[in-house]
Amino acid sequence: MIYNIEFETLPREALEAIQLRRLQAVVERAYAMVPFYRQKFQKTGITPADIKTLKDLRHLPFTTKQDLRDNYPFGMFAVPMDNVVRIHASSGTTGQPTVVGYTARDITTWSELMARALAAGGAARGDIIHNAYGYGLFTGGLGIHYGAERLGASVIPISGGNTKRQILIMKDFGPTILTCTPSYALHLAEVAQEAGVDFKDLRFKAGIFGAEPWSERMRQEIERKLHLSAVDIYGLSEVIGPGVSVECREAKKGLHVFEDHFIPEVINPETGEALPYGETGELVFTSITKEAFPVIRYRTRDISALNPEPCICGRTHVRMNRISGRTDDMLIIRGVNVFPSQIESVLMEIEEVEPHYQLIVDREGNLDTLTVLVEVGEHAFSDEVRILQDLEKKITKNIKELLGVSAKVKLVEPKTIARSEGKAQRVIDKRKF
Amino acid sequence: MRVEQISVFLENKAGRLAEVTRILAEANVNIRALSLADTSDFGILRLIVNDNNVAKEALMKNGFTVGKTDVVAVEVEDRPGGLHKILDSLFKANVNVEYMYAFVQQSGSNAVIIFRFDNLEEAVRVLQANGVTVVEAEKLYSI
After folding, report:
1. How confident is the model at residue A425 (pLDDT cuts 50, 70, 90)?
2. Distance, in angstroms, between A153 CA and closest chain B CA?
3. Of the candidates A165, A161, A179, A195, which has an alpha carbon nearest to the alpha carbon of residue A246?
4. pLDDT-based confidence at A94, cuts 50/70/90?
5. Are the C-beta atoms of residues A194 and A365 closer than 8 Å to each other?
6. Are B22 and B58 within 8 A, CB to CB?
7. What span, in angstroms and rounded, lies between the C-alpha atoms of B77 and A208?
8. How many other CB atoms are there within 10 angstroms of residue B101's CB atom?
9. Residue ranges per domain, chain A?
10. Which DSSP state fits A231?
11. Element housing A177 (H / E)
């Protein structure tokens, strides 16, 4: 079902006319209200009046995660705090989160986009949505929640964790739509099976899964094990949260970007040059309707390509391919963003540990696992087992506290971690997407 | 009263122990006693050898993490209750044993056991007050 038939099926020309008008408005607002944008534009000799066509977007400077960090916490807000009704944050590379804000109208926009996304995946008024995305600073839980209510569905705000109870509620409440990370969906299937519950006997018909990269093979596995139709949803808090783009259940071939609210570009990550449709590069978004936290040409570090071909579902919005990787070293582990440098800073804070470490990411069963290998030097070593085990526990606890992800810490002998050309290989990702 | 012990960090994987014994053999170091404490991931090899400095240097040169700890070598009567008498006196004096292991050879008709205490001085005092023979380092190496 198409939630907003008017806007989601706009002819290209009309869509681009709306985009241009909204782009001009957002550039003007960002220039007037956010010192960061004004200074950056002035440095490149650009004023809002120079944006005469959509192509002129390419003359604007990029915004990076570092820029957001430099303006921590509220420096990028384009409205007074009086008008900000919600604050979310995502993890950053140094433990400092990226903070985003929403006005009441932003929340309305976001709810509408999430209603569209849920509808594209097969949800409608009358459905019961089992929302197992985490609630909190993370945009996943509340983003889906507001969209579900907007759609007129009944939402179960179960959040993440306590899987056994989730199974019980699935049995008793009979939800028809599942929303969570794809790896958690498979974990649910596993736990259900252990509890003697068959998804065949539950009422699920569709699932909207995202917040981490997954593969076509994984979709098939989810659809087979959970007896539902699975679509991919994409978003990032810097742009709005979930609901930037979504697959339609009709085609399941690429994610429609809600182009009346976001202008997507794909660029060469090395040169910054904008690439034509079909070519693979780094995804860049400009949010053209956001009030509190507009982003101009935000570099996502996600790798994808845009596909303008008409879709059988009737939506005219361009599709982006599944995310195939990252241009930086960020890892997504069970939906949590993890940078190797964050692990390093945890280790650096423990006096006896030297920063010789390696991260091994794997998928056991259906859940991502993170193993941190730490070399034991003279300072950390003890002849007593207990002291070394306490060290393992301390590192595990500190990682959990700072990053919110459970890691297994494994002490290894010095020089175990291969050093190639003087630089250690910090991450081994054994997962197959 | 104290004996120096070296300890080596070992990952729990095939061939690591053999690597240590190879290095010590090549360095002409004689192992007098040893114990291996292990978890599922790693192990700690504790050794009493005839030359600590040579052993430590050889192991470190080969990339091992090596520590040194003071332990106590105690003569234990080789008859039922011999060890119990010692442990009981330590327990009553509130001295904790972190770990212990047996020495390879006997001292006369007595067994020798290596103890690691949380409080070495207090332990030695208690042992001597209870008439237990604590073996001197020099004597230990020549057993």
Report:
1. confident
2. 49
3. A179
4. low
5. no
6. no
7. 73
8. 17
9. 87-91+97-328, 333-429
10. E
11. strand A177-180
In the predicted model, what is the mean pLDDT of chain A?
92
CB A287 within 8 A of CB A30: no
B90-107: average pLDDT = 88
Which residue is listed with tokens 């087992």? A385
CB proximity list for B55: less than 8 A, separation 6 or greater: B6, B24, B27, B29, B47, B49
Q: Are B102 and B83 in contact (CB under 8 A)?
A: no
> Given a cut of 60, is residue A146 above it in pLDDT?
yes
Chain A partners within 8 Å of B67 (Cβ): 378, 381-383
For the purposes of burial, counting CB atoms within 10 Å of the CB of B65, is it exposed (0-12), middle (13-18) or buried (19 or more)?
buried
Q: Look-up: residue for tokens 């004096």?
A: B93
- Find the CB nearest B67 among A381, A412, A416: A381
Chain A residues whose CB is inside 8 A of the B100 CB are none
Alpha-carbon dihedral of residues A64, A68, A70, A74, nearest 10 degrees?
Answer: 160
Instruction: Give A389's contacts in chain B (Cβ within 8 Å).
Output: 39
Q: Which domains does chain B have, with CATH numbers?
A: 3-69 (3.30.2130.10), 70-142 (3.30.70.260)
Q: Give residue-wise pLDDT tens across range A260-283.
A: 999 999 999 999 999 999 999 999
Answer whether B44 sits within 8 Å of A416, measured CB to CB: no
* Tokens 């650009």 -> residue: A46
Q: What is the DSSP string of A22-56?
A: HHHHHHHHHHHH-HHHHHHHHHTT--GGG--SGGG
The domain made up of A333-429 has a fold known as GMP Synthetase; Chain A, domain 3 (3.30.300)
> Residue B55: how many CB atoms within 10 A of its CB?
24
- Answering whether pTM is above 0.90, one says no
Phi and psi torsions of A298, nearest 5° = -80, 125
* Cβ pairs bridging A and B (under 8 Å): 54
**CATH code given to domain A87-91+97-328:** 3.40.50.12780
Report, in angstroms and rounded to the nearest whole number, the Rg of chain A calculated over CA atoms.
22
Q: Select from B42, B63, B69 the Cβ nearest to the Cβ of A383.
A: B69
Closest CA to A245 of A371, A353, A117: A117
**A29 closest CA partner among A292, A208, A216:** A292
Q: Is A23 exposed, middle or buried (0-12, 13-18, 19+ CB in 10 A)?
A: buried
Distance CA A116, CA A6 (A): 12
Mean pLDDT to the nearest integer, A211-236: 92
Strand blocks (E) in chain B: 3-11, 31-38, 42-49, 66-77, 97-102, 110-117, 134-135
The pLDDT score that the predictor gives to residue A92 is: 53
Tell me which residue in A388, A389, A415 faces B63 most closely, judged by beta carbons.
A415
Give me the residue from B5, B39, B67 closest to A385, CB to CB. Answer: B39
**Cα–Cα distance for residue pair A93/A191, rounded to 1 Å:** 33
Average pLDDT over residues A9-33: 97
Enter the ipTM. 0.86
Contact B116 A411 (CB under 8 A): no
Token pair 């220039």 in the structure block, residue? A31
